[in-house]
Amino acid sequence: MVQNPSPALQKWFSEDPPAFGRELREKLFYFDPEYIPLNHGSYGGTPKPVQEYFDEVDKRIEANTDLFMRIDLAPLLADVRERAANFLGIETDECYLVTNASLGLNTIMRNFVWNAEDVIVTTSVTYGSIQKTAEYIRDTPPNPKVSVMQLIFPTTHAEIIAKFRAHIECLVKARTSFAQNWGLRKKCNVKTAGKGKIVAIIDSIVSTPGMLMPWKEMVEICGEYGVWSVVDGAHSIGNEQGINLCEALPDFWVSNAHKWLTSKKSCAIMYVPQRNHHMFRTAIPTSSVYPSGSLKATYDWNGTIDWANYMAVNAALDMREWLGGEEKIWEYCHGLAVDGTRRLAEILGTQLLDKTENLEFTTMMCEVGLPISSSVPGTSEVDVAFKRKMLVERKAFISNYYHNGKFWARCSAQIYNDVGPYLPLPPPSILASLPLPGTSTDTEIRCRWKTLKKLDGSSSKFVRRLTRNSVARIRRERGRRRT
Ligand SMILES: Cc1ncc(COP(=O)(O)O)c(C=O)c1O
């Protein structure tokens, strides 16, 4: 049931919800009519009811700021935390709001008291800035170590679980018989290890490739070996089915509400179970109640922010119930991610990265190969050119990246998408005019002609021109190299 809708929300909820897809997009979102948004995973997208509720709260703050900050804020904040906690199966006192996943994860990692013997475990697909957070801690005295577990897709959940267990086991063994275990430490990619603690940063859903990890099993393994588990759940809430943190029992967990929960930027939900409150010495920034001994007091106020961002979580939860609830949203978006990306793979002549029979890695994001030759290196030049082409020229976006020697796209499916937009996606024609190094052989030219003809039917003048220009450029480059 929708709970006590404010006037801004009542206006919406007094009507029947729109059907998912185009109708919903037109009624509930602000998208430029020409834009094809297939990248909800990066920054989310705020629906009109949420934005209007946010505006309502913001105006209330400005109408009498002191009243809001000093009197009204505390019960409103408690209400949002309680609803978010219920959603995740945890206690309100275990649920806190921060501005984004980066801040939540940084706060957790910087609250550990580090020793030189400690090890932080990450993977080769840990989100860039979170990997850098681990490296920053490594580079700061007393310099704990970082051990990176290599993770290459395609793979299976079973393989990841086995690999993670072996990695942790190796670190634990190296820790207990440090002097004799140089071989083990080398295997775990750690130079030294003593009797220190091990803290594993585990993605629930990797950013790129956008794959659902067997994170609950990985958390369980951490429990078995006395390893701390810090779950980067940036993509989880609203995207992953049936999250129950009380059952999964990670040591810490953070998820962005502004991504898949369709709340307002900037808000993330941070789970700190009661058993770990003692570890949490400070918020970032430090609160005026330090040292308070109470996480609630710490997070009731730790610097002036726009609290309306946090309040908007209420509106997002209300709206999702109005639209039919989490199961209905999951069925639609997951189904669309699979169908849309499969059709895209057919058109592009490529494959999905999730090769498991039951698509165990696939949530509302699905990964498809881009038809770029493997002779093209995954440089930032190619990456930037692709992004620019997509956004500026074609008004469409999928998140592109390079993994395991190939180019891929992460396609997000949301309640405002339908399968239509997947089809005229522009990669084939875009590829023709990218500054792709390493494509100057006749075979490559023939390949690109053939691919482009097949994929675009060379029906549009635009595509033909791009193709001609591209091939001419390659020939020119080849000529230059000969002379
Ligand atoms: C896995 C993962 N972790 C952390 C982040 C950081 O999120 P934010 O930029 O909201 O702090 C992202 C962002 O996309 C992410 O994908």
From TrEMBL:
Keywords: Pyridoxal phosphate, Transferase. It comes from the Eukaryota. Residues 197-363 form the Aminotransferase class V domain. The keyword Amino-acid biosynthesis does not apply. One of its GO terms (molecular function) is transferase activity. This is PLP-dependent transferase.
